[in-house]
Design a protein that fits this description.
The complex is a heterodimer.
Chain A (H helix, E strand, L loop, with lengths): L1 H22 L1 H6 L3 E6 L3 E3 L4 E8 L15 E15 L2 E14 L3 E5 L3 E4 L2 E4 L3 E6 L12 E7 L10 E9 L2 E8 L7 E5 L4 E7 L2 E14 L3 E5 L3 E9 L10 H4 L8 E9 L3 E5 L16 E9 L3 E3 L4 E11 L15 E5 L3 E7 L2 E14 L3 E5 L3 E6 L4 E6 L3 E6 L48 H33 L1 H22 L4 H19 L9 H10 L4 H19 L7 H18 L1
Parallel strand pairs in A: 2-9, 21-29
Antiparallel strand pairs in A: 1-3, 3-5, 4-5, 6-9, 7-8, 10-11, 11-15, 12-17, 13-15, 14-15, 16-19, 17-18, 20-22, 22-25, 23-25, 24-25, 26-29, 27-28
Helix pairs in contact in A: 4-5, 5-6, 5-9, 6-8, 6-9, 7-8, 8-9
Chain B lengths: L1 H41 L3 H13 L5 H13 L3 H14 L4 H13 L11 H5 L8 H24 L3 H30 L1 E5 L3 E5 L8 E6 L3 E8 L2 E5 L5 E5 L3 E3 L1
Antiparallel strand pairs in B: 1-4, 1-7, 2-3, 4-5, 5-6
Helix pairs in contact in B: 1-2, 2-3, 3-4, 4-5, 7-8
Classes of the chains: A alpha+beta, B alpha+beta.
Chain lengths: 602, 254
């Protein structure tokens, strides 16, 4: 038990020690950092590349070394390798940075020491001398496993004459990662593609080569000398290694390039020679008028849609220009038919095609013709001048003369009439064609030009129109309800009519010629009836005492009750008194005032 | 007191008739101008015709046919941008007029960009019928239906029969419908502003200021939606993806 725990403790100690060692390698190895630089070859041609390897030992995860200025090379990173070796507890870490140097110029160049700054110290490698030689044009392609060349179909073309620029890659070994650059000066040439690359085999001095060929059409657009710069092909060549595994039944399988075990890759950059082109101007002799720099071989044909048509009817004149050359630049003026036809040219349609290595195709020009005059009409020959570089001469191609007959129309048609914007679909095979479109005319009916601006007055009218009906409705509601109550509710009706009725009676009384006693009796009756109507009771049967009681029950003010009581008593006493009063109008007025007081209360 | 009332009444009547007369006189002057401008148009003096139409509009004469005629005049002068702007104005006042629609389409076809008016929003698509009438027409219809509804309501107070009740329900539904439509029309008209490019070609910038990135270019006559203004620059959009800033002087809007 005790031994086991000691063993476990020892193991832990070893593990901890090992981990400390691993962690502190930077510190341990910092003292022994070595940087070295090497190249895979130092004698190369402009076609080759140099693999520069910078090996750093004695430090884990070193900083990226600083390369010196190498203006004569294109530098590309080719990856990093890192390895750790342990020999008898001695740990050694190596990191290799690889770079691909592509020479730009010939000569002897010194690759200055490469610097590494690590833990505050600077470490330098030794400098390397490299000699870059020019590729010998005479011997370069002989028996070479790979080479490239470019050619042009013509070095002294005319302006706008097509030249074919061809790049060919000859190889006897397998190639991968092909990258081709074919630059050209866009100020001097216009480029058209000539399709995909071709691949074929070719025997050169009895040696079979696989050839990859790519062409492009260049049209010089300016005269004078111009250089087509070097084309550059970058590729990896795959060489098969000889091995002793031929007898091994599995060797064939493992020798497959997929496994990459028995092959060697060589990165190459193949450059071609620049080509000088001297573009000529067109000869002046025989240069036709209206020549529009069309170069190639062309033919012109024309057809007419209908050769018999009515006045105002339309027909289409189709002119087709076909051939090889700069057809895309070709233009055609409208035929000179303005005296007899109205002409509407359409947008030309260009269809490009490739004939061998020649750009060509067909350009179609369409003109809608509307005859002005009836009778037999002739569309004269349409001509196009072009320059044929093969014959070194200007050539005129033309169409045949076309005859057509224009019949009188059914009715006169105004050519500027605007046809309906939506064509009718129910008329099949309709022969009405839209000749022109125009805006519809201005509006002239003056009564339609009323000012519709919403001014302040209009706004007031709008607001009133919105709220006035509501107000009228509210008034109507109140009135109708009132009328309804007056018609159906006796108490309500008596109460609301009491004052008017009493006042009318009093007025009537003042105009009548009653006896004094009758007058007083009548006045008393009117007052009591008024109170009866107000309280929906039988008023005529009231005595002054009953009036007092009823008014108190109905919450009349004591002061007013007292006045009524006094007046009614007065009427009573006057009614039964033998003395003559002679105060007719005074009593009536007093009664009216009393009614007013009571009405105020109610 | 009675004499005062008579004098006041006479004065009111006089002022009323004076105002009516002056309005009529103004209206007659405007109609004379329009007649003259139409004659100038027919005589192919488009510049003079356009001047009269523009003056009338500046004086506050609002009429769809006036904008339509001005649009035609601009078309004849080869000014597609102002023409489209005036057709759009005319269309907002006379939405069912086929001549305006036809000429607007014709003018749009003449532009480089050939942009139709920007797509409408969800509300406009939901309440599609609001485009069928102008705001003024909706107001007038609202007033008519309002008067009709309250009259029917009073009728129903007097004669409480099922016929009057049905009439009241129907008129109330119609009134609510027209009220909502009017509200939506007003909202759309005040919130969605359309504009037209009046310069030959303008660069639409990512922000205010010519130093900013040009997002896209628009040509004369392109119809755009105006989102917000910032003094001399306005934010415009064609759709959700195409939005940017243009100088306010390069566009016409309403």
């Amino acid at each position: 038990m005790h031994k086991t725990s000691i063993k476990q403790f020892k193991r832990k100690l070893i593990t901890i020690f090992f981990l400390i060692c691993l962690v502190s390698t930077d510190i341990v190895f910092a003292a022994g950092i070595i940087i070295s630089a090497s190249v895979d070859k130092n004698q190369i041609t402009l076609e080759d590349t140099i693999e520069l390897s910078i090996k750093i030992t004695g430090v884990r995860n070193p900083k990226i070394p600083v390369l010196p200025t190498l203006s004569d090379f294109i530098i590309r990173s080719a990856g990093t390798q890192s390895s750790t070796q342990i020999f008898n507890s001695n740990v050694q870490t190596t990191t290799i940075y690889k770079y691909l140097l592509i020479p730009k110029n010939e000569g002897t160049f010194i690759i200055d020491p490469i610097k590494l700054e690590q833990s505050g110290n600077t470490y330098n490698s030794k400098s390397i001398s490299v000699n870059v030689q020019k590729t010998n044009p005479k011997t370069s392609n002989v028996n070479k496993s790979v080479y490239a060349e470019t050619s042009v179909s013509k070095i002294n073309p005319f302006i706008n004459e097509q030249i074919t620029y061809t790049f060919k890659l000859f190889r006897r070994v397998e190639a991968r990662n092909l990258n081709l650059s074919m630059p050209f000066d866009e100020t001097y040439f216009r480029k058209e593609n000539l399709g995909k690359a071709k691949r074929y085999s070719q025997l050169i001095n009895g040696i079979a080569y696989d050839v990859d060929e790519l062409s492009m059409a260049l049209f010089p657009i300016n005269s004078g000398k111009a250089i087509i710069p070097s084309s550059m092909m970058e590729l990896d060549l795959i060489y098969q290694r000889e091995s002793n595994r031929r007898r091994d039944p599995f060797s064939r399988f493992f020798n497959d390039p997929f496994f990459g075990r028995n092959s060697k890759s060589d990165h190459k950059i193949l450059t071609t020679k620049p080509i000088e082109i001297n573009t000529q101007i067109f000869p002046n002799s025989g240069k036709p008028k209206g020549f529009r720099n069309i170069v190639g071989r062309f033919s012109l044909s024309a057809t007419i849609g209908k050769d018999i048509l009515e006045l105002g009817d339309t027909t289409t004149l189709t002119v087709i220009l076909s051939g090889t050359g700069n057809l895309m630049d070709a233009t055609l003026e409208s035929p000179n038919l303005h005296k007899n036809f109205k002409i509407y040219p359409d947008q030309p349609i260009y269809k490009q095609s490739i004939h061998g290595n020649q750009i060509g195709g067909e350009k179609t020009f369409k003109f809608a013709l509307v005859p002005y005059k009836t009778g037999k009409q002739t569309i004269p020959s349409i001509e196009l001048n072009y320059f044929n570089p093969e014959k070194n001469a200007y050539i005129t191609t033309s169409t045949k003369v076309i005859n057509l007959t224009v019949m009188p129309g059914v009715g006169n048609e105004n050519l500027n009439l605007v046809t309906p914007s939506t064509p009718r679909t129910d008329q099949k095979n309709s022969e009405i064609s839209i000749l022109a479109r125009d805006i519809l005319p201005i509006h002239t009916r003056l009564e339609s030009f009323k000012n519709l601006s919403i001014g302040n007055n209009t706004k007031i009218i709008y607001v009133l129109s919105f709220f006035l009906p509501v107000i009228i409705y509210l008034f109507a509601t109140v009135y109708i309800r009132y009328t309804h109550q007056m018609n159906n509710n006796t108490a309500f009706s008596r109460k609301h009519k009491a004052y008017i009725k009493a006042k009318q009676s009093l007025n009537h009384l003042s105009k009548s010629n009653y006896q004094e006693k009758d007058l007083v009796k009548k006045l008393s009756l009117i007052i009591r009836e008024y109170i009866g109507d107000k309280l929906n009771l039988q008023g005529t049967a009231f005595t002054p005492k009953e009036v007092e009681k009823t008014l108190i029950d109905n919450n009349f003010a004591l002061e007013k009750i007292s006045i009524i009581k006094k007046l009614l008593k007065k009427y009573e006493s006057m009614q039964y008194s033998p003395i003559s009063i002679n105060e007719d109008q005074g009593l009536i007025n007093e009664s009216i005032n009393l009614l007013k007081i009571l009405e105020e209360k109610s | 007191m009675t004499i005062k009332k008579i004098v006041l009444s006479c004065l009111s009547i006089f002022i009323f008739f004076f105002l009516i007369n002056s309005i009529w006189a103004q209206e007659n002057n405007a109609l004379t101008d329009i007649s003259n401008a139409n004659e100038l148009y027919h005589d192919k003096d488009y510049i003079a015709a356009a001047k009269i139409f523009k003056n009338l509009i500046a004086e506050g004469h609002v009429n769809g046919y006036l904008y339509f005629n001005l649009g035609n005049t601009h078309m004849r002068l080869g000014e597609i941008g102002p023409a489209i702007l005036n057709y759009l104005l005319a269309k907002s006042l006379l939405p069912r007029n086929e001549s305006i629609e036809a000429n607007l389409k014709y003018a749009i076809n003449k532009t480089v960009d050939r942009l139709d008016p920007p797509r409408t929003g969800f509300i406009q698509e939901l309440f599609f019928w609001v485009q069928a009438a102008s705001l003024n027409e909706y107001f007038q219809l609202s007033i008519l239906l309002n008067i009709f509804f309250w009259t029917v309501s009073i009728g129903y107070l007097c004669l409480r029969t099922p016929t009057w009740k049905t009439l009241k329900t129907v008129s109330m539904t119609a009134l609510l419908f027209v009220f909502i439509s009017t509200g939506i029309k007003y909202h759309l008209q005040s919130s969605q502003k359309l504009g037209v490019i009046i310069d030959k070609k303008i660069a639409v910038k990512s922000d205010t200021g010519i130093q900013n990135i040009t997002l896209f270019e628009l040509n004369e006559g392109a119809i755009i939606k105006i989102n917000e203004g910032n003094g001399t620059w306005v934010n415009i959009s064609l759709d959700a993806d195409k939005t940017g800033w243009v100088p306010i002087k390069s566009i016409g809007y309403y």
